[in-house]
Design goal:
Helix content is 37%, strand content 17%. By secondary structure, the chain is an alpha+beta fold. Helix 25 runs antiparallel to helix 26. The longest helix has 20 residues. It is globular. It binds one RNA strand through helix 8, strand 7, strand 11, helix 13 and strand 24.
RNA sequence: GCUGCGGUGGUGGAAUGGUAGACACAAGGGCCUUAAGAGCCCUCGUCCGUAAAGGACGUGAGAGUUCGACUCUCUCCCGCAGCACCA
């Protein structure tokens, strides 16, 4: 834009974010202003502060205003911490492996590696236009071989410790696309999100990480960290620790025992049946051709009966999610013909198969106590099994249980239970557990909802799992053989880890990266990559073709930032064993734990739990310094479209941050996103309100130029300034960004109303507290006022900015966070509320020195006609007086 | 069903036991302007009262604790999120 000289000065009076924001962004970047300092050997004692945001997945859709919301807020937080003198680390990187990138690539016919680097470039440009104080020097990218070398290394450590293992697990299979699917690709109705075909479950050998081994610690250590209640509770539920007992029941007539897990052994005298899940091993052996019941039993298990069982089990196993939901909680089942015996009372318990019993929960077999468990009740009703009452609830009902609402699940007193009678259920539980254990009928166990983490994907765009399958090693058990064995199509293979010095196992560049129709990863088709010499015996071997899930790279990225520039310095030919974590111990122990980790609620039981697990493992192998990675976790609410719906292309309600920046500037966008509402709450976008924030900045700008040179700030305005400094500081600390902004708005309103305005010194103070929120405007105003100052004193005609060496010492962002003058906070004038029976009847204002003392106030209050009206003819029973605040007359 | 969070003007929200509705948006009116925009000023919970004064009611519903409750306790209703036939 070309301006005539004469207009320049007038032009500069107007707030024009376009003309200042980029200029400052460049200046800050040039100065490396936001680069965190690693602990200097023995020097600098600046306390560290690690602010972490969840690194973005660089999607093709570009930056979302939701990103902006949380990053701006955390940026304000980080900036304030910096101004308080902390050595702040606020890094960013890219979580770029995984399905979304692969799908985006398939859809747009761009290779994922190309798509990712394009998307990163545009994300970067967008992020940089927001003036966020990220330390770009530490950028990491999970798809960079230098990075995933260490993701693979971590996997090998798991393997070494036996915590990575293979098992047959059900996977989602799309019969139409002929590919395995991740859970997130299957819609809740059981169909494939891309093609809409009904998916199936198939068993497949997968890699698993033994997170359940860490369940207790993941649970226990939640007490040592500061997470929002909702997040901590969700993890507790997800881990789902339950103490109970596995009771063994002898099956009558054959040599077989059924184990049932229960948390309610106290009700065991009321047991009338056993139900096995369709996946239970007894069911399988019953149906297998090898099953050969004794002649005596054959009478009971007729082949017709077996057919019935077979049909039921087949049907149950093939039931889709939809069918189960459609059936609701209706119970079905089939009698096996077998009985087991309850050692407690010698009762015969018929054994059923029912699909409400899940194979993976407990022991996959349930002891049925229909009087005291609603599902058991429903099953008993459906199968016509007797119901026995063994607990009397608080309602004292001792009648026969015939209706679901009579089922006594909670608190009560034992009956019909021999030596337990009369006991409270909790006491009974203790007593019977000891009894059963001492008799050898069962053992106390802890069960978890959490299950081991399936760590394989049959997709292209992920970290290759760094192992090799070698048949020779397996058959010949070459030199101190220590490998796990994998049986593939009937043949044994040794699972040979790729030697650490050969990492990374690079993902080969593939033209055809679509999921293969064999159910294998597309990598399986690359024979010159797959076929490899066994690192152990040198013989012919095959690489693992599965890749890691998209969570793998995000498990440790917050550690990678700490030595981002040292990733992959080693030459690939080296034979030296490296351990980048060990080599960077000093840096890691300086920065860890993360002081505040900010991210979405949706990651609570996924990324957040997984990364805690991985970190604990790193701690156990001696490369991480503390038992928990994140000291504090906070989550942000979602930004919805203007229509109150989730932003989505199909609704056409997506707000593009670029457009807001273009129209109003980054500062307005940042302020609005912080002002829109409480940080952890879901809020709909409102463009009109964005304009309000723009108006606020325009006002600040205007006042900063014309009303910031008073000789002395008036007492009233000065006090307001002190209050605002205090409030803004506290609100940032409490992450109440919305009220911090409104406090500044209040102040600016007062500033505007004030005749004289602020003194230069006081105006600077205001720009300091504005700086974390509107970094560009605050910087520009701060520099202008500074130039003005210098100009007056030193007669330097400096048209621009005093950005001199050491440059950033002049920046508003390198000033000390202002302190408020507590003595000025005390209001000279106070308002005393006069209440009669708690209702406000009058209000006094006056000098604090005058309007004080209960006697004085009581006197004043009683003189008020408004108050008299309500006291007339009443006897005052009590007077409540709060100094400087209120007086309340309580009448009879 | 379980767990967690929430319910306050036309709207987003503020108020952590002491004047409910800060701040902002929307709406209405005015000033300025040839006009538009921008900016500035005023009104703005509901009802009664003539506009003022003044009054009554009011934070999902009901009860309780308290001199005093949006705030604490209990019961219920509704909404959101996560988990869910978890034995």
């Amino acid at each position: 834009m070309v301006k005539k000289t004469g207009e320049a000065s007038r032009g500069e009076q107007n707030y024009d974010p376009g003309s200042i924001e980029e200029k400052w962004q460049k200046a800050w970047e040039k100065e490396g202003f936001y680069q965190a300092k690693d602990p200097p050997a023995g020097g600098d004692k600046a306390e560290k502060f690690y602010v972490l945001i969840e690194f973005p997945y660089p999607s093709g859709a570009g930056l979302h205003v939701g990103h902006v919301r949380s990053w701006s807020a955390m940026d304000a937080y980080a900036r304030k911490k910096r101004m308080e003198g902390f050595n702040v680390l606020y890094p960013i990187g890219w979580d770029a492996f995984g399905l979304p990138a692969e799908n985006y690539a398939i859809k747009n016919k761009i290779h994922p590696s190309v798509a990712v680097s394009e998307n990163i470039a545009s994300f970067k440009r967008q992020i940089k236009s927001l003036g966020l104080s990220f330390d770009w020097n530490r950028e990491v990218n999970t798809t960079d071989p230098k990075y995933y070398k260490w993701t693979q290394w971590i996997f090998l450590q798991f393997l070494k410790k036996g915590l990575a293992y293979q098992a047959d697990v059900p996977v989602n299979w799309c019969p139409s696309c002929k590919t395995t699917l991740a859970d997130e690709e299957v819609l809740p109705n059981g169909t494939h999100e891309r093609c809409g075909a009904k998916t199936e479950k198939r068993m497949r050998k997968q890699w698993l990480l033994a997170i359940t081994k860490y369940a207790d610690r993941l649970l226990e250590d939640l007490k040592t960290v500061d997470y929002p209640e909702m997040v901590a509770q969700q993890q507790v539920n997800w881990i789902g620790r339950k103490e109970g007992i596995n009771i063994t029941y002898q099956v009558l007539g054959i040599k077989y025992q059924v184990e049932c897990f229960t948390t309610r052994p106290d009700t065991n005298f009321g047991a009338t049946f056993i139900v096995l899940g369709p996946e239970h091993p007894f069911v399988a052996s019953l149906l297998s051709s090898k099953f050969n019941p004794s002649t005596k039993l054959r009478a009971r298990v007729q082949s017709a009966k077996l057919e019935e069982i077979r049909t039921y089990v087949e049907k149950a196993k093939n039931k889709s999610e939809i069918e189960r939901i459609a059936e609701g909680r209706k119970k079905t089942g089939v009698f096996t013909g077998f009985y087991a015996v309850n050692d407690l009372n010698g009762k015969k318990l018929p054994i059923y198969i029912g699909d409400f019993v899940l194979g993976h929960v407990g022991t996959g077999a349930v002891i049925g106590v229909p009087g005291h468990d609603i599902r058991d009740f429903e099953f008993a009703k459906a199968m016509d099994i007797p119901i026995v009452r063994v607990v009397v609830g608080p309602d004292g009902d001792t009648s026969e249980i015939t209706k679901p609402e009579q089922v006594q699940e909670a608190a009560g007193t034992m009956v019909n239970s021999e030596f337990l009678d009369g006991l409270d259920i909790m006491a009974a539980k203790e007593k019977i557990m000891d009894h059963i254990v001492s008799k050898g009928w069962g053992e106390k166990v802890v069960s978890y909802h959490l299950r081991d983490w399936v760590f394989s994907r049959q997709h292209y765009w992920g970290e290759p799992i760094p192992v090799v399958y070698c048949a020779n090693c397996a058959t010949n058990k070459i030199s101190n053989f220590k490998f796990q064995i994998s049986n593939i199509k009937g043949k044994d293979y040794a699972i040979v880890p790729v030697p650490e010095e050969q990492l990374p196992v690079e993902l080969p560049y593939l033209e055809q990266y679509e999921p293969a129709t064999t159910g294998e990863s597309p990598l399986a088709t690359v024979s010159d990559w797959v076929n490899v010499a066994c690192p152990n015996c040198g013989g012919k071997a095959r690489r693992e073709t599965d890749t890691m899930p998209n969570w793998a790279g995000s498990n440790w990225y917050y550690l990678a930032y700490l030595f981002a520039n040292k990733l992959g310095v080693q030459s690939s030919k080296s034979t030296r064993e490296e351990n980048i974590f060990k080599e960077n111990q000093e840096v890691i122990s300086y920065w860890i734990p993360v002081d505040i980790y900010q991210g979405g609620f949706e990651h609570t039981t996924l990324h957040l739990l997984y990364s805690r697990f991985v970190y604990k493992f790193l701690f156990d192998i001696g490369v991480a310094p503390a038992p928990e990675p994140y000291a504090k976790r906070r989550s942000h609410g979602i930004v919805l479209g203007p229509d109150g719906r989730k932003m989505s292309k199909s609704f056409g309600n997506v707000i593009n941050p670029d457009e807001i920046v273009k129209k109003f500037g980054a500062d307005t966008l940042r302020i609005y996103e912080m002002f829109m509402g409480p940080f952890d709450q879901t809020i709909a976008w409102n463009e009109a309100s964005v304009e309000g924030c723009f108006r606020f900045l325009k006002r600040v700008w205007h006042l900063g130029i014309i009303k910031a040179s008073a000789e002395k700030t008036s007492a009233g305005l000065l006090q307001k300034l002190q209050k605002t400094i205090k409030k803004v500081g506290e609100d940032i600390e409490w992450m109440k960004f919305n009220t911090a902004v409104s406090a500044m708005m209040e102040f600016v309103n007062d500033w505007q109303d004030d005749k004289e305005g602020l003194s230069v010194q006081d105006a600077k103070q205001f720009f300091l507290i504005l700086a974390p929120f509107a970094p560009h405007a605050a910087e520009e105003l701060f520099q202008r006022i500074r130039n003005q100052e210098l100009g007056i004193k030193e007669k330097i005609r400096q048209p621009r900015l005093t950005w001199r060496q050491p440059a950033h010492h002049n920046s508003v962002h390198d000033q000390k966070w202002p302190e408020f003058d507590a003595s000025l906070l005390v209001e000279k004038e106070v308002t005393i509320v006069v209440q009669v029976n708690g209702k406000v009847r009058d209000v006094f204002r006056g000098q604090r020195s005058e309007v004080r003392g209960q006697k004085t106030i009581e006197q004043l209050a009683k003189e008020s006609a408004k108050v008299q009206k309500y006291l007339e003819g009443k006897k005052i029973k009590k007077v409540v007086y709060v100094e400087g605040k209120l007086i309340n007359f309580v009448t009879v």
